Amino acid sequence: MWKVVRFVESKSWGWRRFMSTAIPGPCIVHKRGADILHDPWFNKDTGFPLTERDRLGLRGLLPPRVISFEQQYDRFMESFRSLEKNTRGQPDSVVSLAKWRILNRLHDRNETLYYRVLIDNIKDFAPIIYTPTVGLVCQNYSGLFRRPRGMYFSAKDKGEMMSMIYNWPAEQVDMIVLTDGSRILGLGDLGVQGIGIPIGKLDIYVAAAGINPQRILPVMLDVGTNNQRLLEDRLYLGLRQPRLEGEEYLSIVDEFMEAVHRRWPKAIVQFEDFQMKWAFETLQRYRKRFCMFNDDIQGTAGVALAGLLGTVRAQGRPLADFLKQKIVVVGAGSAGLGVLTMAMQAASRMAGVNGTAANNQFYLIDKDGLVTKERKNLDPAAAPFAKDPAGIDGLREGASLIEVLKKVKPDVLLGLSGVGGIFNEEVLKAMKESTSNRPAIFAMSNPTKNAECTAADAFKYAGDNIVFASGSPFENVNLGNGKVGYVNQANNMYLFPGIGLGALLSGARFITDGMLQAAAECLASYITDEDIQKGILYPSTDSIRHITAEVGAAVLRAAVAEDLAEGLGEVGPKELVHMSKEETVEYVTSNMWFPIYSPLVHEK
Ligand SMILES: NC(=O)C1=CN([C@@H]2O[C@H](COP(=O)(O)OP(=O)(O)OC[C@H]3O[C@@H](n4cnc5c(N)ncnc54)[C@H](O)[C@@H]3O)[C@@H](O)[C@H]2O)C=CC1
Ligand SMILES: CC(=O)C(=O)O
Ligand SMILES: [Mg+2]
Fold it and tell me: Does residue 361's CB lie within 6 angstroms of at least one atom of ligand 2?
């Protein structure tokens, strides 16, 4: 069924205004005839009105009957539902890929309709175009490849990028998601096949932040792969060479960043799924030079912090008790260290002390066990969280997860290890012995098979009263007696769209810790006490547009407060400074693109 009504009834008052007053403005198109039908940005399929068919030379190229947008929408949803019915009982991977294919075909053909069904059905479709199915798509990308999407810059393009960037057909690009494919979700090095991640993230940008799909650009930097299986795969579509390293690698990323900045100085670049060493290195290298951020380090940190603060509220304690929470983080990679860094900054602010003074509550575990100051070759990024063995009774360097849990009895166990099932029965039962009245388990690794535990196991072994969150979606758990174990999705999708949109509208030249902190605080305060008591830490993904508007406004206001906002288009710093909080949310909302067919006007 067509769902305008749901928009009108939703809490998103900005859309209501939009929906009631929107008369779509004309869209200039430099093509005619069949070229328009083959361009998904402009194509309306059978939806072209007769007058437009005349104006654009389309008469005779389509069946005569005009089908309304609403009818097209319903027809697609019917096809989708019958595909669901017809594939029932088949293996999950077959069903997931079939669903991805039907959506991808629409994406390739008619973007307006595609984004409309995505926005309306985000809860059902995010698991297909994003985690977990996007992981499967990346793993099989070379075989699934039919049409290119986004841009590919390879090591062979060195010296050419400044001109190549002009091959992109859109005049303006606002949002770029960039990967080198070296750590795709928890699936490791997938080389060029990792392009599925920027595509999926940017689909979320369009759906959640209303970034115009004509202004997004997914990018793959192909510097080779160290994945032997791919190197030996005759269908592999990327460079068949080992990954570039050191200065050679950095010179490729430098050249790309310079090229982007030259053509679109205001575009935001989101770094995604880079292996840890390059994730940290590139963040340090570019964060003061370009408007960029690393989603795995910074976006994830904000979402996790919001969840950690929500956990304190779920325990019925004041927020200041965050300082008393004992938190065990499993995984000392870009995501785990990003989370700890932001959590420690928050704790330090609350305690009014400097960074390292507040680290007693955190325990960090990696593949070699508990990280202490005795660790050989201790990574500098992990150093602030390394324990002094003298201060942790009986726990030695490299102590196992179970040893740490039995000793510490933490309030929170948070996994960002990429290792599926590492929170096994013994680990979860140990969490039952937590000193907290409401222990929290965050199994944040993606995709689903890499989650540290399933939702069902978490409630079964750690107890009904836990708070649970996972990076990929799980169904809520039936606990019997009419009780439900609520499953939260602790995924950076709650923040990155708002960070990108807020930064874009602010016109800031770079993205500061203050802007990221504002994003996290906004998400943390979004949930009501009533929901928190039920174990709900994050809002439903159904309201992702509304959340993103709020987060975007918080980021924008933080940029204004730091005197960094230069504005965008006709709304300059003076106008931004005078906007109230509500006006800023309204401004952000009114800048969100919404998929409706615009009248097309041909211009030579
Ligand atoms: N839910 C979300 O929003 C996000 C989830 N992630 C997920 O987090 C995972 C890790 O991502 P990154 O930190 O970027 O990866 P990474 O490769 O940088 O780090 C992985 C870390 O896990 C540790 N590890 C590996 N095996 C272990 C074991 N058996 N026991 C304890 N620790 C172990 C490694 O030593 C390393 O420190 C991935 O699965 C990714 O999908 C990442 C970003 C956001
Ligand atoms: C969600 C995400 O960014 C990741 O798993 O890498
Ligand atoms: Mg990621």
Answer: no
d(Cα 184, Cα 450) in Å, to the nearest integer? Answer: 12
115 counts as catalytic: no
Is 477 in contact with 466 (CB distance < 8 Å)? no
Fold held by 298-308+321-490: Rossmann fold (3.40.50)
Encode pLDDT of 381-436 as tens digits.
999 999 998 878 789 999 999 999 999 999 999 999 999 999 999 999 999 999 99
How far lies 183's CA from each of 170, 222, 233, in Å?
A: 29, 13, 19
Tell me what ipTM this predicted complex has: 0.99
Q: Where in the chain is the domain with CATH 3.40.50.720?
A: 298-308+321-490
CATH class of segment(s) 27-127:
mainly alpha
Q: Whose CA is nearest to atom 6 of ligand 2?
A: 185
pLDDT tens-place string over residues 472-503:
999 999 999 899 999 999 999 999 999 999 99
Residue ranges, comma separated, of all CATH 1.20.1370.30 domains in the chain are: 27-127
Q: Could you confirm whether domain 145-290 is CATH 3.40.50.10380?
A: yes
Q: Give the other-Cβ count within 10 Å of 1's Cβ.
A: 9
Counting beta carbons within 10 angstroms of the beta carbon of residue 11, is it exposed (0 to 12), middle (13 to 18) or buried (19 or more)?
A: exposed
CATH 3.40.50.10380 residue ranges for the chain: 145-290
Q: Is 53 annotated for ligand binding?
A: no
Q: Is 243 annotated as a binding residue?
A: no
Question: What is the C-alpha separation between 488 and 556, in angstroms, rounded?
Answer: 27
